[in-house]
């Protein structure tokens, strides 16, 4: 071997050794990275599992407590005890509902369990209000409480069986990260869905009432989509319509025809109109908003009222709310004998370029000819019962929807320490029916 | 082994090692890459930064969610005071010093003109689920979420409904974290003000992609864009 050949061989061997060393270093780095990644993954998985298990065991606790409290409620006649137990049950039902909805299970498996917790909590809120207003449990209330207690006992037993069946093999995170459903728990809840909830239908289901799902039929003759199309062309003539296209129908709480309405300025409106009577029930559009200059309140009210009246709604502006994007929402309602009819609310939204939204489901669902009792009523007694720190700015008579009933109330617009409130007081009993606080946000003034 | 072969072998070995090291470096860089908020950024995260800087006296401009020159100057002052590199850019270190968490989408997309957390969350869900849908399709998706909040079979809050496991694809695959846009925010404002093009639907699906047989058995009430809405 020549000297040159030896040098070349040496260089090659050196490079090869360097390469091997580099590969070893690279593999070590990769390995270290993989180990670190595995540690991170394991930590994530543990955290995830802990969240699910906390929810599962908290659910078991809440349902056990719920069973105990509901059973106690069947056995007491003391109003103080009843109030205390109802407060506990409302909290326990809320926690159970929240935990159920954290578990990684399909909604259909949990539906009945969630409905049970929601209905139980809501029924107890109704009972609590009944007691607070001086009432007492009726025989049917007691029967319903007994029914709920029986269902909670079954739910508790099922959860205990499920936990016993799984033993130490509970592992939500693995199932979530693989097939997405934990079979044992899912089957358990499917069984609970089918066998547990046989309580009598509650008279009052509160805001989650099944009754709210009932369909609304507008008391007007049925029309074809062609006739409704002609009607809405006439109703919307002030918007310079260039074309109306029928886009199918919808049958849910209200039966409507859908249309896309093209305006001459190029804006597209999505319009829905009732099959009965062809009353426009909804208009929405995005293109007509977006300018930062909002309308002044008076102009917005005037335009909203004109528009609603042109569509056949006999309403007056009641409330105006502006958003930061220059959109103004105007709520309107009929006013009969100086009484604001809140159940028949109509909403109009206006952008700087004109009308960009309309909504009238409540009007179509609730509107009827009402005979308002004109018996002389004074707001003075009701006002005297208000908290003394409130400064009353304005008062009106208003018909207010509450617990599926309509209550004639005095509406007091009040201020206290810079906050604005609307307080509704029953005009017959002088009891406070509802209180709203006005909140200013970027979405305008809202009440809560 | 000939001389040429040896040389080729050596060159290939070098290329291989270089490749391995380059890949490792790239992977590490990608993993460590931090999202930054800088001049020109917009959105809720910018509002958070401006609010913090204003509270601490570094920023005198308006909290408008737009990262402009004044915000840059304020960030530099904050960085100087806290011994950080004075580049006027909010990266992970600066954000951490401010007590803010940066996400991969926080500096882009939305004009973020809302301070209502429910509205913003709803708008993110609508963007993730229906950003390609017509305007009334977006209102309809927001309305379905709100209908669920009122319904006895579902959680009683907007966040509870949106984050209910397996309820929304956009939550499962992380698209809900992509931010939102003005149209989605407006659609959600309409829905929160009572607009519901579905008149009470509590489900929807895309017939082209839905695999859940159960949901397909629900009575359909209306089709808007690519979504079928049902009771």
Notes on the structure:
The complex is a heterodimer of chains A (448) and B (231). Helices cover 46% and strands 24% of the residues of chain A. With 448 residues, chain A is an alpha+beta fold. Chain A is built from ten helices and 15 strands. Mean pLDDT of chain A is 84; it is low at 203-213. In chain A, the strands form two sheets. An eight-stranded antiparallel β-sheet of chain A has the order 1-2-3-4-10-9-6-5. In chain A, strands 7-8-11-12-13-14-15 form a seven-stranded mixed β-sheet. The longest helix of chain B has 30 residues, at 3-32. In chain B, helix 5 (117-130) packs across helix 6 and helix 5 (117-130) crosses helix 9. Chain B has helices spanning 3-32, 44-55, 69-81, 92-98, 117-130, 135-150, 158-162, 169-172, 182-192, 213-216, and strands at residues 203-205, 220-224, 227-230. Chain B is mainly α and 231 residues long. The chains are: A alpha+beta (448), B mainly alpha (231). Chains A and B meet through helix 1, helix 2, helix 3, strand 1 and strand 3 of A and helix 1, helix 6, helix 9 and strand 2 of B.
What attributes characterize this protein structure?
heterodimer; A: 448 residues; alpha+beta; eight-stranded antiparallel beta sheet; seven-stranded mixed beta sheet; B: 231 residues; mainly alpha; 5% strand
Q: What's a concise summary of this model?
A:
The complex is a heterodimer of chains A (448) and B (231). By secondary structure, chain A is of the alpha+beta class.
Quote the average pLDDT of chain B. 76
How large is the radius of gyration of chain A? Answer: 32 Å
Radius of gyration of chain B: 24 Å
Q: Which H/E pattern describes the elements of chain B? A: HHHHHHHHHEHEE
Distance between the termini of chain A: 95 Å
Could you tell me the mean pLDDT of chain A?
Answer: 84
Low-confidence stretches of chain A: 203-213
The percent range for strand residues of chain A is 15-25%
Shape of chain A: extended
How would you sum up the global shape of chain B? flat
| Series of H and E elements of chain A | HHHHHHHEEEEHEEEEEEHHEEEEE
Strand adjacency order, main sheet of chain A: 1-2-3-4-10-9-6-5
Instruction: Give the end-to-end Cα distance of chain B, rounded to a whole number of Å.
Output: 77 Å
* β-sheet strand percentage of chain B: 5-15%
Secondary-structure class of chain A? alpha+beta
Helix content of chain B: 40-55%
Number of strands of chain B: 3
The description of the largest β-sheet of chain A is: 8 strands, antiparallel
């Amino acid at each position: 071997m020549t000297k040159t050949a030896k040098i070349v061989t040496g260089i090659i061997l050196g490079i090869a050794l360097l390469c091997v060393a580099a590969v070893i270093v690279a593999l070590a780095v990769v390995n270290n990275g993989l180990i670190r990644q595995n540690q991170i993954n394991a930590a994530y998985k543990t955290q995830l599992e802990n969240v699910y298990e906390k929810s599962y065991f908290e659910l078991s606790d809440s349902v056990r407590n719920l069973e105990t409290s509901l059973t106690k409620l069947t056995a007491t006649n003391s109003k103080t005890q009843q109030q205390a137990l109802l407060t506990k049950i409302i909290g326990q039902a809320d926690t159970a509902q929240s935990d159920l909805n954290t578990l990684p299970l399909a909604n259909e498996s949990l539906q009945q369990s969630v409905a049970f917790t929601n209905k139980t909590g809501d029924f107890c809120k109704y009972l609590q209000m009944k007691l607070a207003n001086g009432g007492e449990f009726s025989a049917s209330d007691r029967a319903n409480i007994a029914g709920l207690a029986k269902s909670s006992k079954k739910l508790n037993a099922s959860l205990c069986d499920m936990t016993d069946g799984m033993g130490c093999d509970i592992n939500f995170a693995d199932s979530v990260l693989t097939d997405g459903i934990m079979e044992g728990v899912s089957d358990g809840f499917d069984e609970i869905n089918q066998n547990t909830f046989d309580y009598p239908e509650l008279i009052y289901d509160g805001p989650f009432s099944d009754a709210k799902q009932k369909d609304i039929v507008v008391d007007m003759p049925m029309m074809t989509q062609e006739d409704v199309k002609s009607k809405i062309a006439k109703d919307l003539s002030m918007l310079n319509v260039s074309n109306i296209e029928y886009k199918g129908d919808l049958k849910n709480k209200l039966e409507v025809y859908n249309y896309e309405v093209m305006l001459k300025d190029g804006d597209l409106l999505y319009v829905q109109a009732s099959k009965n009577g062809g009353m426009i029930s909804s208009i929405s559009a995005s293109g007509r908003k977006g300018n930062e200059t909002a309308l002044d309140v008076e102009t917005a009210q005037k335009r909203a009222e004109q528009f609603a009246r042109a569509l056949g709604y006999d309403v007056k502006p009641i409330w105006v709310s502006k958003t930061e994007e220059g959109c103004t929402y105007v709520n309107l309602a009929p006013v009969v004998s100086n009484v604001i009819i809140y159940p028949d609310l109509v909403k109009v939204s206006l952008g700087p370029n004109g009308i960009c939204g309309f909504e009238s489901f409540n009007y179509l669902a609730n509107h009827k000819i009402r005979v308002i009792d004109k018996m002389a009523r004074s707001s003075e007694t009701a006002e005297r019962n208000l908290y003394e720190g409130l400064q009353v700015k304005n008062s009106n008579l208003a018909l207010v929807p509450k617990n599926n009933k309509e209550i004639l109330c005095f509406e007091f617009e009040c201020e206290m320490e810079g906050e604005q409130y609307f307080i509704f007081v029953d005009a017959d009993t002088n009891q406070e029916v509802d209180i709203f606080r006005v909140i200013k946000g970027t979405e305008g003034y809202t009440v809560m | 082994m000939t001389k040429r072969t040896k040389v080729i072998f050596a060159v290939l070995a070098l290329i291989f090692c270089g490749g391995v090291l380059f890949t490792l470096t790239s992977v590490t860089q990608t993993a460590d890459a931090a999202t930054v908020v800088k001049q020109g950024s917009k959105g809720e995260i910018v509002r958070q930064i401006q609010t913090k800087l204003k509270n601490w006296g570094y920023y005198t401009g308006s909290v408008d969610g737009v990262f402009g020159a004044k915000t840059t100057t304020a960030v530099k002052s904050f960085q100087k005071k806290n011994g950080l590199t004075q580049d006027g850019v909010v990266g992970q270190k600066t954000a951490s010093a401010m007590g803010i968490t940066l996400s991969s989408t926080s500096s882009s997309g939305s004009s973020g003109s809302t301070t209502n957390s429910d509205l913003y969350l709803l708008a993110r869900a609508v963007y993730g689920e229906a950003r390609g849908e017509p305007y009334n399709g977006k209102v309809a998706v927001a309305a379905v979420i709100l209908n669920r909040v009122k319904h006895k079979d579902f959680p009683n809050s907007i966040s509870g409904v949106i984050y209910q496991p397996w309820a929304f694809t956009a939550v499962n695959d992380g698209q809900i974290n992509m931010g939102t846009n003005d149209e989605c925010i407006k659609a959600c404002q309409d829905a929160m003000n009572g607009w519901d093009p579905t008149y009470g639907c509590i489900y929807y699906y895309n017939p082209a992609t839905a695999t859940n047989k159960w949901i397909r058995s629900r009575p359909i009430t209306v089709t808007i864009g690519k979504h079928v809405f049902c009771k």
